[in-house]
């Protein structure tokens, strides 16, 4: 094919780490006339055969025409990736400067990336038949297993999945037998559609009503809403009623929640309200389940899709509303590889699709609040708790010079005692897991340190191990000091495990639940613990920030914050914002129904104005103070950052690489500022030295244009071979 016609080259995004498209000729054989953007194609790539996404026709290629190859085949007969997702991926690739092939690959399940067809595997379940229902148990006297099976089915008239039967310990043989006798029959599972009880909508209060109406009024246009309601103000009820309106128009809804927020209780709340297919998309799904979920969203069958970060790319042809719950949550930002922010991408998605999006939070990110103040987002406020619940009473407890027993002051111990005696639950928040953050030699002052990170290792008493919380490496517990050989090693400082020991000693007659990364390692253990807390099995709850995330524990009346001060000492400019959000979210777990809640905050800085604003004024006041500081220091949201990171086994390689990057732009315009290269806040992690280069601009486009010019040159640099490097646009963790 010598004379290429205009626009007869195929532009293909291939899932490789290169910031470019690849060009191919049409296949020799027929079958590509119907080719449309978003379809998968098989292409020769070097020695390999890869799968790419066709993104459009073009007339130009930087490859000589004679060297162009033909694609091998077209896989799909309809676009797999819809127009709005393609647009979203193009935008994301551009904005985050991440290879388009990998961005697209991120947007659909592994099995499809491997070229498998988009088939939906219908889940089946077994149901009791009329015959099965009428079996007389007397005739089965000598077959207890058959009786067990029939009784179990009678308790579940909706049917049972193979998995449920397996969990119940019912063997395949007995299922086959029952099926042969026609006691049970297979049918397509509709378990998501059928709930035994449906919940009715609540009567909204005026603030909620105003919010729902405003969202409904925007049903066919792009509009961002910030639903800013104090904890327990009924944001979820607003979501549910806004969703009801969208479902009536036969449209689909996407709900993004933080990682820890996607609990069975959350999903249940949606399923109990709507008689439509509600699907959850999370990291515990198997690849086949993921493909199924994707396919059912793609076909329009799923009406409400609830998912964590990556669900922002879900195919939803009739999407009519997006909700981002707890929009300030850090888990929406992907912290490795493709470093996107799901909330920001969700906004872009709503923009491309021309639909409304609701960002909900009691403690919005300063970036979001700023946009609402500028009038770019509509600010909906729910200033009071819904129903009979009131906001908790806050008291700041000065612990300077107070005797502390494993971090607990006497007034706190007394308060806990009172609440427990009344049959209520108490919650203690400490954002540090393990027994103690330091293991110290009493003789010489030596401390156990992770050799791969140069940071102290945390002592875990239960496991009798030392654990580095930065790189996850573990070591056996030292029996003697590595430096002087003495055996007197002391645990210094307080972690959740130690707090648990202290509480067990003080309150031996109560049951304690500890919720942190160590106690919830096993799959499903978070769900179990949450359920046990809800049912009242445990009276004392200890936890890290896992406890802070949106849980509804009606019987918790006391929340104590063991150490409110850690946020004051971080070098990250976002540390105070995060501290405020976390403290208010934790505090928000108290008194969520009729019984009024109490929050006690232990601090060495009782007069700190920010603590005062947070607890005695409002988050708005607190945020306004922080925003004023951000203006004065020209920090986000009043400026924009990009961060180059480099890691290498030798620090000079990482330094050298970023020095070279910096040389590329030193003469550039005054609209940019930079800092570095300097060692990262964690200068070494998992044996690699880490260096960073920060770039700051007062205008987003300035920064974007600059990065666009810079990247092709970086790609050509030889020094990049010796490092692992990345670019983070709008980094959430830095300095
Ligand atoms: P948020 O998400 O803002 O923390 P939720 O939506 O979980 O708050 O609501 C907190 C509690 O208030 C829930 O128990 C909910 O059922 C109740 N609630 C919400 N709206 C109303 C209302 N309009 N009337 C009565 N109770 C309500
Ligand atoms: Zn020693
Ligand atoms: Zn380490």
Bound molecules: adenosine-5'-diphosphate, zinc ion
By CATH, the architecture of the largest domain is named: 3-Layer(aba) Sandwich
Count of runs of 4 or more consecutive helical residues = 21
Strand content: 15-25%
Low-confidence stretches: none
Could you give the order of strands across the largest sheet? 11-12-10-13-14-9-15
* The named CATH superfamily of the largest domain: P-loop containing nucleotide triphosphate hydrolases
**Could you give a short account of the major beta sheet?**
7 strands, parallel
Total number of distinct structural domains: 5
Structure report:
By secondary structure, the protein is of the alpha/beta class. The chain folds into 5 domains: 2-113, GIY-YIG endonuclease, CATH 3.40.1440; 124-188; 206-382, Rossmann fold; 393-436 and 493-628, P-loop containing nucleotide triphosphate hydrolases (Rossmann fold); 640-729, Alpha-Beta Plaits (2-Layer Sandwich), CATH 3.30.70. The protein has a 7-stranded parallel β-sheet with strand order 11-12-10-13-14-9-15, with helices on both faces. A 6-stranded parallel β-sheet has the order 16-30-29-19-28-27, with helices on both faces. It has a 5-stranded antiparallel β-sheet with strand order 2-1-4-3-5. The chain is built from 21 helices and 34 strands. The longest helix has 17 residues, at 700-716. The protein starts with 8 loop residues before the first strand and ends in a 6-residue tail after the last strand. The chain is globular, with a radius of gyration of 29 Å. The model has no long low-confidence stretch (mean pLDDT 90). The site of one zinc ion has 8 residues, from loops.
């Amino acid at each position: 094919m010598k004379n290429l016609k205009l626009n007869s080259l195929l532009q293909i995004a291939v899932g490789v780490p290169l910031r470019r498209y690849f060009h191919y000729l049409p296949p020799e054989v027929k079958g590509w006339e119907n080719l449309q953007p978003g379809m998968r194609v098989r292409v020769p790539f070097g020695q390999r055969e890869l799968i790419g996404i066709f993104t459009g026709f073009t007339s130009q290629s930087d490859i000589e025409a004679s060297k162009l190859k033909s694609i091998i085949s077209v896989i799909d007969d309809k676009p797999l990736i819809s127009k709005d997702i393609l647009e979203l991926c193009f935008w994301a690739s551009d904005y985050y400067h991440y290879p388009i092939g990998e961005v697209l690959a991120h947007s659909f399940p592994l099995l499809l990336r491997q070229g498998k067809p988009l088939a939906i595997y219908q889940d089946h379940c077994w149901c009791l038949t009329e015959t099965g229902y009428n079996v007389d148990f007397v005739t089965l006297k000598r077959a207890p297993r058959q009786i067990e099976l029939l009784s179990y089915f009678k308790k579940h008239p909706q049917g049972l999945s193979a998995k449920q039967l397996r969990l119940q310990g019912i063997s395949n043989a007995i299922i086959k037998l029952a099926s042969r006798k026609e006691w049970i029959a297979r049918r397509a599972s509709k378990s998501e559609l059928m709930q035994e009880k449906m919940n009715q909508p609540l009567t909204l209060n005026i603030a909620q009503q105003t919010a729902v109406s405003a969202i409904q009024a925007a049903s066919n246009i792009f509009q961002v809403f910030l639903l800013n309601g104090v904890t327990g103000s009924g944001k979820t009820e607003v979501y549910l009623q806004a969703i009801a309106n969208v479902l009536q128009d036969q449209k689909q809804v996407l709900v993004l929640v933080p990682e820890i927020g996607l609990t069975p209780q959350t999903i249940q709340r949606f399923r109990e309200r709507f008689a439509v297919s509600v699907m959850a998309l999370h990291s515990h799904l198997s690849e086949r389940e993921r493909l199924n979920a994707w396919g059912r969203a793609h076909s329009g069958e799923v009406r409400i899709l609830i998912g964590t970060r990556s669900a922002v790319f879900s195919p939803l042809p009739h999407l009519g509303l997006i909700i981002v719950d707890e929009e300030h949550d850090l888990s929406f930002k992907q912290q490795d590889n493709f470093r996107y922010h799901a909330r920001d991408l969700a906004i872009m998605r709503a923009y491309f699709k021309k639909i409304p999006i609701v960002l909900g939070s009691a403690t919005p990110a300063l970036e979001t609040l700023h946009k609402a103040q500028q009038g770019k987002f509509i600010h909906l406020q729910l200033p009071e708790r819904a129903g009979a619940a009131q906001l908790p009473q806050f008291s700041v407890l000065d612990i300077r010079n107070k005797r502390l027993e494993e971090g607990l002051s006497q007034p706190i111990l007394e308060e806990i005692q009172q609440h427990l005696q009344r049959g209520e639950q108490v919650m203690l928040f400490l954002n540090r897991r393990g027994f103690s953050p330091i293991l110290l030699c009493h003789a010489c002052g030596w401390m156990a340190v992770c050799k791969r990170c140069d940071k102290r290792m945390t002592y875990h008493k239960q496991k009798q191990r030392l654990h580095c919380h930065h790189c996850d490496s573990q070591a056996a517990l030292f029996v003697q000091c590595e430096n002087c050989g003495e055996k007197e090693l002391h645990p210094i400082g307080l972690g959740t495990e130690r707090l648990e020991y202290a509480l067990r000693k003080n309150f031996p007659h109560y049951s304690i639940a500890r919720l942190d990364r160590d106690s919830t390692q096993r799959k499903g253990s978070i769900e179990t613990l949450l359920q046990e807390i809800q049912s009242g099995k445990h009276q004392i709850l200890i936890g890290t920030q896992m406890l802070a995330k949106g849980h509804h524990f009606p019987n918790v009346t006391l929340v104590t914050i063991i150490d409110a001060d850690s946020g004051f000492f971080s070098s990250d400019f976002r540390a105070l914002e995060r501290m405020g959000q976390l403290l208010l979210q934790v505090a928000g777990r108290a008194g969520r129904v009729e019984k009024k809640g109490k929050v006690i905050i232990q601090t060495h800085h009782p007069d700190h104005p920010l603590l005062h604003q947070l607890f005695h004024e409002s988050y708005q006041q607190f945020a306004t103070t922080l925003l004023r500081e951000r203006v004065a220091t020209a920090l986000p949201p009043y400026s924009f950052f990009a961060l180059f990171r480099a890691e290498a086994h030798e620090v000079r390689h990482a330094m050298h690489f970023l020095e070279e990057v910096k040389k590329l732009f030193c003469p550039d315009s005054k609209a940019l500022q930079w800092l570095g290269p300097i060692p990262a806040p964690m200068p070494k992690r998992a044996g690699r030295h880490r260096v960073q280069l920060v770039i700051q601009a007062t205008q987003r486009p300035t920064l974007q244009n600059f990065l666009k010019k810079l990247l092709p040159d970086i790609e050509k640099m030889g020094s990049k071979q010796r490092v692992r490097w990345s670019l983070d646009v709008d980094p959430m963790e830095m300095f």
